[in-house]
């Protein structure tokens, strides 16, 4: 075994004694370099590597523990043994605390003691080097982890915290270490959560693994959803030595899950809409098609024998059935454009008073005057910029519903009030009304009130009304009382710009 020694001793007699003691030791080969000054020792350590330094703390150019400190700065990984006098044991012990591997007392040195001290000091230094290297590797891994990681006592006091967690919380290590983990400002600010966290720590301290998804508050006030866990670390006997607290950011995953759930919900909604559409079309088209088929068949078989009046009756029935199917197809096309967000909006100049009067006349003719429709115009100038086609569908649907769901002979009113740059349309009937439970959903596509009974309908009209109002940047309000009637109020700006 070959050991290279740097002897730092300004007393020639002591230096010679140490050299003689090393020469008479067997089984070990020594290379001894002796210097008298600290600056010479520093120069030697900078020039070459030594296995160990035998150091006298009292030198011509340095005295006391500062001598050791300066050498440790130059050669932190080199084993060092301090040599002291009989009355300097307190200083010797302090030197060990500052990094020396051991000390020997001058005047009590023997060859076996010297050899044993050198060997043990080198072994300790190598062990400490391995421990420091292990700690450096641990710290590098610990700090570079993308997870927020803390080491805790079984009671929940923070022992270590990695850089990721410090950066997330926007704090320094000294602000966290030594304090209970639940005192950190990253947790939800509720007493209930603090109790849950302390319960989790108590559970982990008993050796049980804990895991949960929670929201944490970051340094910029952002809420981050994390997968939080507490893992106990045990010794050979099963005693819990410490807890590993980890939090992994799963916000992206949760957002992705939310998007998937939203897409699934949308797909389910579309599937239900398709089913409702098929049911509605098959039902609503069957009646006018049956009417057309029946009347056409009778005309084919008996028109030669019928009077002109009877033939005209069946032609009218066919025309009304075709009109009904055309209106239904138009509603379906509009709903398709609404779903695809391609419904055109093309405002043009029109006089709302004239428009409403013509619309009332059309509805009155279609209804064969079974429901008197009163039109009341209030306010000032009714000239406007609106999409005439959408306005016709909007008010036409509401008026036709008012007629359809009202008993024969009951009146319907349409009010127009133009003032302060807005047009307010109000349609009021004395019909069956809308149950309160249905008000929230009555504007959904294909949804119909639960009290419509056998009255035919598609559930498309009010969905079209809702979108037409939105395109005009307007507002729609519904007031209804079951069994007494309904009032629809639509407020639109008089001048609507193209979108």
Task: Explain what this protein looks like in three dimensions.
This protein is an alpha/beta fold and 499 residues long. Helix content is 46%, strand content 23%. It has 13 helices and 17 strands. A hairpin with a 5-residue loop joins strand 8 and strand 9 (223-234). The radius of gyration is 47 Å and the shape is rod-shaped. The model has no long low-confidence stretch (mean pLDDT 87).
Name the shape in a single word. Answer: rod-shaped
Structural class: alpha/beta
Name the average pLDDT. Answer: 87
SSE string: EHEHEHEHEHEEHHEEEHHEHEEHEEHHEE
Largest sheet: 5 strands, parallel
- Biggest sheet strand order reads 2-1-3-4-5
Low-confidence runs = none
**Range of helix content:** 40-55%
Which radius of gyration do the C-alpha atoms yield? Answer: 47 Å
Please work out how many helical segments DSSP would assign: 13
Portion in strands: 15-25%
E-strand count: 17
- End-to-end Cα distance, whole Å, is 91 Å
Annotate the secondary structure layout.
Layout: E1 2-8, H1 12-23, E2 29-35, H2 38-47, E3 52-56, H3 65-74, E4 79-84, H4 89-97, E5 102-105, H5 111-144, E6 148-152, E7 158-161, H6 163-169, H7 191-205, E8 210-217, E9 223-234, E10 240-249, H8 251-302, H9 308-339, E11 348-351, H10 352-366, E12 373-379, E13 383-386, H11 388-404, E14 412-419, E15 422-428, H12 436-439, H13 461-471, E16 475-481, E17 485-493
Parallel strand pairs: 1-2, 1-3, 3-4, 4-5, 12-14
Antiparallel strand pairs: 6-7, 6-10, 8-9, 9-10, 11-13, 14-15, 15-17, 16-17
Helix pairs in contact: 2-3, 8-9, 9-13, 11-13
């Amino acid at each position: 075994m070959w050991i290279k020694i740097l002897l730092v001793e300004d007393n020639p007699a002591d230096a010679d004694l140490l050299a003689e003691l090393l020469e008479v030791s067997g089984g070990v080969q020594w290379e001894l370099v002796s210097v008298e000054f600290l600056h010479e020792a520093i120069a030697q350590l900078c020039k070459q590597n030594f296995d160990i330094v035998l150091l006298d703390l009292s030198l011509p150019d340095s005295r006391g523990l500062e001598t050791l400190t300066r050498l440790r700065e130059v050669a932190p990984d080199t084993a060092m043994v301090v040599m002291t006098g009989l009355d300097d044991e307190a200083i010797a012990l302090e030197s060990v605390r500052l990094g020396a591997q051991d000390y020997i007392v001058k005047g009590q040195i023997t060859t076996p003691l010297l050899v044993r001290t050198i060997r043990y000091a080198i072994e300790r230094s190598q062990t400490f080097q391995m421990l420091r290297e292990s700690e450096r590797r641990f710290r590098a891994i610990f700090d570079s982890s993308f997870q927020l990681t803390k080491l805790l006592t079984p009671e929940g006091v923070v022992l270590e915290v990695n850089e990721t967690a410090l950066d997330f919380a926007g704090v320094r290590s000294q602000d966290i270490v030594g304090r209970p983990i639940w005192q950190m400002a990253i947790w939800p600010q509720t007493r209930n959560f603090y109790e849950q966290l302390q319960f989790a720590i108590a559970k982990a301290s008993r050796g049980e693994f804990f895991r949960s998804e929670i929201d944490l508050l970051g340094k910029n006030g952002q809420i981050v959803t994390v997968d939080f866990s507490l893992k106990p670390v045990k010794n050979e006997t099963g005693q819990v030595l410490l807890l590993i607290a980890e939090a992994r950011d799963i916000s992206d995953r949760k957002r992705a899950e939310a998007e998937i759930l939203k897409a699934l919900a949308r797909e389910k909604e579309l599937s239900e809409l398709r089913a409702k559409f098929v049911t509605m079309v098959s039902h609503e088209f069957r009646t006018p098609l049956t009417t057309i088929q029946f009347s056409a068949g009778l005309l084919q078989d008996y028109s030669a024998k019928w009077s002109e009046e009877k033939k005209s009756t069946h032609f009218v029935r066919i025309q009304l059935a075709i009109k009904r199917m055309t209106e239904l197809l138009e509603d379906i096309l509009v709903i398709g454009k609404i779903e695809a967000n391609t419904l055109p909006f093309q405002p043009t100049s029109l006089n709302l008073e004239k428009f409403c009067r013509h619309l009332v006349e059309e509805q009155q003719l279609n209804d064969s005057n079974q429901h008197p429709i009163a039109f009341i115009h209030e306010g000032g100038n009714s000239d406007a910029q609106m999409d005439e086609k959408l306005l016709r569908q909007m008010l036409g649907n509401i008026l036709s519903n008012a007629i359809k769901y009202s008993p024969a002979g009951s009146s319907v009113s349409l009010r127009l009030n133009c003032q302060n740059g807005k047009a307010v349309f109000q349609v009021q009937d004395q019909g069956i009304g809308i149950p309160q439970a249905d008000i929230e959903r009555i504007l959904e596509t294909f949804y119909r009130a639960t009290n419509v009974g056998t009255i035919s309908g598609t559930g498309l009209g009010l969905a079209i009304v809702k979108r037409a109002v939105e395109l005009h940047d307007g507002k729609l309000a519904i007031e209804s009382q079951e069994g007494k009637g309904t009032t629809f109020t639509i407020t639109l700006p008089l001048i609507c710009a193209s979108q």
